[in-house]
Specification:
Elements: H1 3-18, H2 23-39, H3 49-79, E1 88-93, H4 99-111, E2 115-120, E3 126-131, H5 137-156
Antiparallel strand pairs: 1-3, 2-3
Helix pairs in contact: 1-2, 3-5, 4-5
Length: 157
């Protein structure tokens, strides 16, 4: 059985035993169930649940930080005291191969203010991105690959 489903069932059982059908009751049950499953992880040596769960949480928090910092950068530029706008369309070579990896990367880029994913090359080896601050295309490409794409691939592979 998938450990995520088992964790959700443990959370529901906790809610039932405590007759607390609230978000707090679910959260407490999920955290306790996660702890129980973590203690029993030697029983599931092939499961990637914990690595994917914590990696996804880490990626979400990192992406949230990137969204906030990019928003501040764009706002400063719009108000006239930030970096000068230098729009550019950049082809970023992809290490991501599956539809999920490419889609998650494209959506993450689009969510970050100042960047917009335009298209994926037909051979799926490049992602075309419009950047508001694209003065140094090589640096932007390297930064995207080293931070965003690397983090996505670490979680999904």
């Amino acid at each position: 059985m998938n450990l995520l489903v088992l964790n959700l069932l443990l959370a529901l059982a906790w809610m039932g035993f405590n007759a607390d059908f609230s978000l707090g009751g679910f959260t407490a049950g999920f955290v306790l169930g996660h702890g129980v499953l973590w203690l029993g992880r030697p029983l599931y040596p092939t499961q990637r649940y914990f690595r994917v769960f914590w990696g996804s949480l880490g990626y979400f928090l990192w992406l949230l930080k990137e969204i906030v910092t990019s928003s501040l950068k764009v706002a400063a530029s719009v108000l006239g005291f930030g970096e000068k706008v230098q729009p550019a369309v950049i082809a970023i070579p992809l290490d991501a191969r599956t539809d999920l990896e490419i889609t998650l990367l494209a959506c993450s880029i689009t969510l970050t203010p100042g960047t917009l994913t335009l298209d994926v090359a037909p051979d799926r080896k490049h992602l075309y991105v419009h950047a508001m601050f694209g003065g140094d295309a090589a640096a932007l490409c390297a930064e995207t690959k080293d931070s965003m794409e690397r983090r996505i691939l670490e979680v999904l592979r």
